[in-house]
């Protein structure tokens, strides 16, 4: 049986993150260190914000553990990076 593919906006995020870091690198090589620092911090904050939002969404989904929706969700993520992130999520709602 073919594994069902989980579609997400993550490829767009990966491409935009790489472009943000490339822009920071271009500023560095042009000698504009102030712009480099601003772009580097902005890129790092964008990555951190998305990772935090993913962890929060996983915590909300984990709060409904035991339902059929969550079981299907866990099956779809099984064996992927997001599946490992879901299993070891440090954010817990009690």
Biggest sheet statistics: none
* Helical run tally: 4
Helical proportion, percent range: over 70%
Radius of gyration: 18 Å
What's the number of extended β-strand segments? 0
Q: Would you list the SSEs in sequence order as H and E?
A: HHHH
Q: Termini distance? A: 37 Å
Shape: elongated
Q: How much is the average pLDDT?
A: 81
Indicate the proportion of strand residues. Answer: under 5%
How would you classify the helix and strand content by structural class? mainly alpha
Q: Give start-end ranges of low-pLDDT stretches.
A: none
Integer tally of domains: 1
Which key terms come to mind for this protein?
94 residues; mainly alpha; 4 helices
Structure explained in plain terms:
It is a single chain. The protein is an all-alpha fold and 94 residues long. It has one domain (10-87). Helices cover 72% and strands 0% of the residues. It contains 4 helices and no strands. The radius of gyration is 18 Å and the shape is elongated. The chain starts with 9 loop residues before the first helix and ends in a 7-residue tail after the last helix.
């Amino acid at each position: 049986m073919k594994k069902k593919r989980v579609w997400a906006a993550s490829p767009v995020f990966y491409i935009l993150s790489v472009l943000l870091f490339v822009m920071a690198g271009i500023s560095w090589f042009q000698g504009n260190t102030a712009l480099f620092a601003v772009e580097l911090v902005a890129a790092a904050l964008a990555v951190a914000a998305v990772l935090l939002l993913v962890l929060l969404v996983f915590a909300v989904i984990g709060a409904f553990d035991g339902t059929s929706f969550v079981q299907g969700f866990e099956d779809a993520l099984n064996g992927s990076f997001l599946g490992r992130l879901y299993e070891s999520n440090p954010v817990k709602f009690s």
